[in-house]
């Protein structure tokens, strides 16, 4: 089955050859074509080539066009540093003080920063393999993007000292998110939502409900209005906000390895699909193929019977230097398990 055929059949409860599987390949794609990460900047054709070839090599079920979390913030004025061959990082936020908020304007994804190049990569990837596999583009959610506009520590302090400023930054970020989501959908892709700063590792559930949830709900509502489902990834500990993630409209929750997959199934599995959560660093990067196999089997044992479905996946984006053998091991293990899953033999393998 092609990935599209597999996911469509799985969604309908029909027979499939195996469970859906998504090792979340980010900049590891550069290694597939022997490129440096910095070469992706301003080069949609190369970014598309990397993700297309990575998909063809490993044959996973969803492609995610991604380089870093800062593409929207950079397009709004943040300064991003691009090392020669490592993932980009935030060098300076767009503003230093709330008095400068009025200087910020929402980004035009067809013109500003690297967004046009990511859209080009999306379109080229869709043209190459879009008839057989879902192609998504990473979209940074409003609260996290707001943290890149003024600085993460400053934004968290402002939630207590100046909540109105936080909401203004989130509104500006939401407008950029909506514009970028529209461009992704217009191209034929699907936005893949990531919201690292909304983690309970960073802010409290109360702060999430006040400053992140309303903007997530509006963003997800727009994507739903365009007929697409939504996968939402929030890093770190999220068990105290799973219900809110579902209420915001997420159709699938990507569970970080800091969270418990079995607990997620028990708490919200009757309401939402789950995805995860093989450890990206400890297992996928540093482990051996046998370690990956055992971790995948454990995840399947915990969640294969989730009422709303389950996708085998890494807990977050894979580190750049993840061995190809370990990515193959994840897919090979899922293929060996097949469908339907026979739970008695999983952990005896």
TrEMBL record:
Residue ranges of coiled coil: none
Biological-process GO terms, alphabetical: porphyrin-containing compound biosynthetic process
Domain Uroporphyrinogen decarboxylase (URO-D): residue ranges: 3-336
An example Gene Ontology molecular-function term: uroporphyrinogen decarboxylase activity
Gene3D superfamilies xrefs: 3.20.20.210
Family matches, as InterPro entries: Methanogen_methyltrans, UROD/MetE-like_sf, Uroporphyrinogen_deCOase
UniProt-listed PANTHER family: METHYLCOBAMIDE:COM METHYLTRANSFERASE MTBA
Official protein name in the record: Uroporphyrinogen decarboxylase
